[in-house]
Amino acid sequence: MIRITNLSKEYRGGVKAVVDVNLEVHKGEFVALLGLSGAGKSTLLRCINGLVQPTTGEVTVANLNVNGRSRELRELRRRVAMIFQQFNLVKRLTVLDNVLCGRLSYCGIFFSCCRIFSDADRELAWHALARVGLQDKAFQRADQLSGGQQQRVGIARALVQQPEVLLADEPVASLDPKSSRRVMDILASINREDGLTLLVSMHDVDLALEYASRVVGLRDGRMVLDKPAHTVSKAD
Ligand code: ADP
Ligand code: ADP
Known about the structure:
Helix content is 33%, strand content 25%. The chain is α/β, with parallel strands linked by helices and 236 residues long. The protein is globular.
């Protein structure tokens, strides 16, 4: 599903954020990307959905080349959804409207401005809110919700995109332990029931080993670990 070949990213100023990474993620896997702050997790994830342009190397998702033509990139952005540590919701919009924003990736930015959502879009949004247990918050402003609830809105927004891959950049790093588990439980159920391929960066090793099927470790931009979760000991 995801194929990363000889990927390196050097930012302007000479920071080598990702160094020669090779990684293949198969359909339906739940991969935890572990590493300290600055290890390159975020950069690696952003190379997968085309938010960051790699210096060298190649990334394909479902055989679409991330560095391909703009048409290919647009199709890829529909298939690859992302959630973020700080949720990235539109604060002033309602929960439902935030979820509907996930439908915008279907058309270009030009059409987004004047797009009117269809009934089918709204059905999808309601279903997604049900999946994350937030239908009763649909008409509240996003910034009135707790952090854990906001991240669940982020997941619902990703789901209406009907993606094949979900990238999550430290999705529980800002949450308390109870909300973290709720979010991880939802991610696990999406992985199990919808067969969505998950690549989730995190720094909580215990949580990663509990939920993921495979763990990949990054240190200073290099891949230093790649094992099935059940074979990993903390010494690794
Ligand atoms: P992580 O997600 O593991 O914390 P990042 O990918 O955010 O790691 O960062 C990897 C390295 O790249 C760090 O040294 C960081 O300071 C640097 N970096 C990240 N983004 C940029 C950027 N836009 N410009 C320059 N350096 C960056
Ligand atoms: P399902 O098809 O799984 O039964 P729906 O997604 O149709 O569920 O609706 C789930 C819930 O959301 C229901 O309680 C329904 O009344 C409510 N709902 C669905 N669509 C809307 C809407 N456009 N406005 C307000 N409430 C809605």
